[in-house]
Automatic annotation (TrEMBL):
Stated name of the protein: Putative hydrolase yutF
Residues holding Mg(2+): 10, 12, 206
Xref: InterPro entries: HAD-like_sf (IPR036412), HAD-SF_hydro_IIA (IPR006357), HAD-SF_hydro_IIA_hyp1 (IPR006354), HAD_sf (IPR023214)
GO CC annotation: cytoplasm
A Pfam family: Hydrolase_like
EC number, as in UniProt: 3.-.-.-
Keyword Transcription regulation assigned: no
């Protein structure tokens, strides 16, 4: 196992489950910091702002500056601005998505949006889904922060943003454009912002279909950890394998 200068960690299922930190990952990140390696966080979770994610990690004993955290909300807002300019946007989501959209210059509206953006919303209602479906059917751009069908909590797997976006897709017949992992915009933006080279980067995650595939598609090496969505014994069914597969990050020093 060689040395890497830029470690990119998924959060949900890799660093923590809900409010519970994963001790092996916390220890590993502390060790990387002590060695002076770069540590970054790449999360499909759109609910929190980078500043709020930083505070959450701090409460778990992990130091992380907001600029070291790339969220799907930030990447979504930047994608819309870069490709379509500032837009009137209808959104399903929480504070992280609203802040990112408004900070990028988009205007949140309830009627006649040019784009519908769907992020995780733990106060989802039928009315929100109906409004989004009607706007998409009327021709609004349909963008989703990520395609995660489920995400791990301390109680187990619960519905993720992909489940909400999929419901709207079923209702309208229109497929969303997904921004988050396994797409590569977040890793691309992170590398550009910090001047990172692909050969010095490695992606660490628990979900093969998002975290590991994002790293593979971006062209960097990957570590799968068996702490969340994808079990180690299920990796064999996938054609492209992660560079490393570990039960936990304690296994890194054992190999």
């Amino acid at each position: 196992m060689r040395e890497y200068q830029a470690w990119c960690f998924d959060l949900d299922g890799t660093v923590y489950r809900g409010k519970e930190p994963i001790p092996e990952t916390v220890r590993f990140i502390r060790g990387l910091r002590e060695k002076g390696a770069g540590v970054f966080f790449v999360t499909n979770n759109s609910a929190l702002t980078p500043e709020q994610q930083s505070e959450k990690l701090e409460g778990m004993g992990i130091t992380a500056a907001p600029e070291e955290i790339m969220t799907s909300s930030v990447a979504t807002a930047e994608h819309l601005l870069k490709n379509h300019g500032a837009l009137p946007v209808s959104m399903i989501g929480e504070e992280g998505l609203r802040t990112a959209l408004e900070s990028a210059g988009h205007r949140i509206v309830r009627e006649s949006p040019d784009a519908v953006v769907v992020g995780i919303d733990r106060e989802i209602t039928y009315g929100k889904l109906a409004d989004a479906s009607l706007a998409v059917s009327a021709g609004a751009l349909f963008v989703a922060t990520n395609s995660d069908k489920a995400y791990p909590t301390e109680r187990g797997l619960v519905p993720g943003n992909g489940a909400f976006a999929g419901l709207i897709e079923l209702a309208t017949g229109v497929s969303p454009f997904y921004i988050g992992k396994p797409s590569v915009p977040m890793l691309e933006t992170l590398a550009d912002r910090h001047g990172l080279k692909k050969e010095e980067m490695i992606m660490v995650g628990d979900n093969y279909e998002t975290d590991i595939m994002a790293g593979i598609r971006f062209g960097i090496e990957t570590v799968h950890v068996d702490t969340g969505v994808t079990r180690t014994e299920d990796l064999a069914k996938f054609g492209e394998q992660p560079t490393y597969a570990l039960r936990t990050l304690d296994g890194w020093t054992e190999n």
